[in-house]
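Lecture 7 notes: from sequence to structure.

We start with a single chain of 404 residues. Read the sequence below before looking at the structure.
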Amino acid sequence: MSALGKLDLDLMDIPDTADGYDSGHPTVFMPAPKGGKVDLLILAGEHSGDQHAAELVDELRAKQPDLAVCALGGPALQAAGAQVLHDMTASSVVGFVEVLKNYGFFKALFEETLRWIAEHRPRAVLFVDYPGLNLRIAKALRERGISQKGGGAVKTLFYISPQIWAWKGGRRFTMARDLDALAVIFPFEVECYQDTDLPVEFVGHPFLAAHHVPPVRFDPAAPILLLPGSRKQAVARIFPALLAGCAAYGKRDALVIYPSETIRQVLLSCNPPANVKLIPGADDGAPVAASAVLMSSGTMSLHVALAGIPGAIAYRANPITYFIGKMLVKIPYLGIANLLLKEPMYPEYLQGAASPKALAAELADSIENPARLQRTRAQTERLREILRVPAAGTAADWVAKRLA
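Now the structure, written as tokens:
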């Protein structure tokens, strides 16, 4: 959830279709809802959105067991009891060229989603993050008279705001035009919409929800953690830099958490050495222990920050995307923890600055400097205070109110 990482999502946050689809002749089919009705359709694109939405559905269904939920999502939503109509998390793309290559599939998915909503008329559509596709669908629902904003019956709800405070701030007005309500996960985001009539509510960050199980924990004796991301193109660029930094430090083994088999194959293609172990994202609820971290600026970076694991961010984007991002994004940090704290909890090394020497020095400081660890712990406590769930309730409570 970094600024530059979010730039990739906003412009191209649609799943990579290279595996299993011919982008020139795409085929998309979404089955009818089981039982013939649907209360809530969820659209969640990436692994992080799938997980956040699944936690929300778990909580919703605990309170309303008969709630019929369908989704364009992934395995986490399916495990939570949603009927997954299409797996959006198998892989994802980063960059203008990658999206253009798969344009035919994106168009087919867009039209099939609209056809399905028009036919089955869920009580509400919940868009989870993934604004590049989701906001376009919200607009089309209004234009076709399907959503309440277009004179129809379907409510349009959005959970996890686009980072309009980083770039494309003007989209808040189109969001107000096309959406019925927005739930945000950072408290300062409410102010970003004050000049619109869109109802916006801070619902706390999902990582601090009572039912959330963190995927990582701090242990000073544990291996180093390497987190290159969850999107194929980004992982292929970032992982070699993380490996080189770890090798230059040379004093500890490393672990790499991967979210899918697709990403595991990308990691293997980078030829990690024998002392770097690849492990799947924990399905048994057991957090992975780490003493320090080198990571991309994505969603997992906030997990790491809330666990109090010291380390650094390394980010390498497609040069064209990076150049455009430098012009469009006007914020001091990429990492969300750094932005929230207004200081570098995780020093950031971008593009060529992510050298083996620089990353090795960060590992040495994180593992061998007690003052660094003490500072990280204090920053973690501040983050928790900023992001805790408010008295008004969780994201699931927010959705339940709008389904009542």
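The first strand starts at residue 40 and ends at 44. Keep this in mind for problem set 3.
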